[in-house]
Design brief:
With 423 residues, the chain is α+β, with helices and mostly antiparallel strands. It has eleven helices and five strands, in the order ααααααααβαββααββ. It has a five-stranded mixed sheet with strand order 1-2-3-5-4, with helices on one face. The radius of gyration is 44 Å and the shape is rod-shaped.
Length: 423
Amino acid sequence: MGGMWRVVLGAAVAFATGVLLIVGNAYLPRGVPSWVLVVPLAFTCAGVLVRQRAPLVSLGLGVVGVTIDGFVGPSLGTVLVFTDNLYAAALYGPARFARVLLGVCSVLAVVAGALAGILDSDWRTLAVMGIQAGLVFITPVTTALVLREHRDRAAAERARAEQVARLAELDRQAAVTSERTRMARELHDLIANHFSAIAIQSTAALSRKDLDAKTVRSIMESVRENSVKGMAEMRAMIGLLRQEGDDGEGEATRPRLADAQTLVDRARQAGMSVEMRVEGEVRELPAAVDLAGYRILQEALTNAMKHGESPVRVRVSYEGGDGGGRVSLRVENRIGGEGRASGVEGLLGVGAGLVGMRERALLVGGSFEAGPVTGSPAGSAPGAAVGSAADGADGSGAQWWRVTAVLPAAAEADPAAASGGGP
């Protein structure tokens, strides 16, 4: 509403100024009463009222007014208001029309100057009228085109800035999602292993009424050890999350596949019978592969404690060398009836472990398979398909669960995976 009042006020001021110029004899007398000059002035001022809402109508009213004024005057006030009609049509009208209007006004300026010079037979009149016609016709249109270009450029820059902001927000959301996935995977691997052992041992101690004090003490010592180690690893992870900079995981805190014996010993303390075999020469692995292999082995042993039965067979094979080759992991355990932690499974989650192991293997460019097989495939290759006819058997016909992961030993893995980062 305020904008409309400003337009009306502008038109009223323009009309009042034009009337004052007519009263001051700022027009060429043509033998008509001076009040007649107010009529074309009123047409051009009416165009000011609709300059933004209907710029082409504004130009049409201005053309009518200046044409009438040319026969009865012309007057300075009407010509000045007409320049605003031209300006509004070029600024608020269609872009293509503004370019056409500039060409038409240029031709009119040249023609007006030429006619004035021919009729007066004086080149000085040609020059003066040409300049005046240029100021009246060309200057308003060119000014409007310049402002229009700046306005369109500003709108394009705003649109580009909004697009960049949207892309930045999408990148931020993707980074947050990736970090949450990484943290969830790390927390799952840290908590599941230690607390699975604690839950299984405490459940066994509570379910047996015939245990002597020495056995109970041994179980509680193992529970305490798992609790302390779990808390220590949790504190180490929290410290890594709090530290500043891009140093990543320190050498002293990063789990290594070479420490697999520690995981095996922990599973044995939880009451599992575990056989471990390391083939090939143990060597330094890329950080991403080292962490992925350690976590996959940790989660496979945790699942064996939760759902399987003894014995558990672990095989770590280093193949190739000189910065290349691969490292393969295989964990096998007997499949129990209801598992060893039927009362704890709801607390530890169902299915997240297999998903996490598969993600870790794929992130470093490796492969992962898990599933049941019949008989112990003691002679099969580490990367063989699960449950294939080439697996062989131990003759017992027992059901086994096998986890197989093959990871590249070359430093070509995704660096983000070194800290468990998402894809």
